[in-house]
């Protein structure tokens, strides 16, 4: 199986580059495409004609239609699938998934697709593996980490920042959005190599892993 992985930012790409091979094994292949933010689903599910705007949800209708046509030419012995990985943020999970499925249903032919949504944010997958965080940041605050409830809507990246960044989330926010993005990429680079994909407490990470295994066999 070949996987086309769509992620909303560079920090997600850096993390998945490390984690995906541990899940699908060497006999399967993958390519990650990172975007410049999640954006929003276009009105009426219409394609966005401006391909230069590398915003994930904005381009999704066009992307899935393209993959549907491309995958139709793949040999049956080596099929392909699209896996969308993005944050839920403050959206309703049920409504958001229904909107994503509607986009897929508008594709003819439909590419094999799975929607994997980190709840509330991608940092939930790091917080699902506290030993990995401690291996990367030995001085991480145990009180913060141990009070986190997996996949809770609580300001997930701020929680991780409070545990590992000097001065916590408020200190990082004062540095501006670019500094926050850079720091999140650093978390991905440092924490991901220590993560145990077989023992992660985040339900949304386990769902992601199960979908990859299901597809790859």
How would you characterize this protein structure?
With 217 residues, the protein is α/β, with parallel strands linked by helices. 49% of the residues lie in helices and 12% in strands. The chain has ten helices and four strands, in the order βαβαβαβααααααα. It has helices at residues 10-24, 56-71, 93-105, 123-127, 130-136, 142-147, 156-164, 168-174, 177-191, 203-216, and strands at 2-7, 29-34, 80-87, 113-118. It has a four-stranded parallel sheet, with helices on both faces. α1 (10-24) runs parallel beside α9 and α7 crosses α8.
The largest sheet is: 4 strands, parallel
Which CATH-level-2 architecture of the largest domain?
Answer: 3-Layer(aba) Sandwich
- Count all strands and give the number: 4
Structural class: alpha/beta
- Count of all domains: 2
Any idea of the CATH topology of the largest domain?
Answer: Rossmann fold
A few lines on this structure:
With 217 residues, this protein is α/β, with parallel strands linked by helices.
Set out the fold topology.
Blueprint: E1 2-7, H1 10-24, E2 29-34, H2 56-71, E3 80-87, H3 93-105, E4 113-118, H4 123-127, H5 130-136, H6 142-147, H7 156-164, H8 168-174, H9 177-191, H10 203-216
Parallel strand pairs: 1-2, 1-3, 3-4
Helix pairs in contact: 1-9, 7-8
Short descriptors:
Rossmann fold; alpha/beta; globular; 12% strand; 217 residues; 49% helix
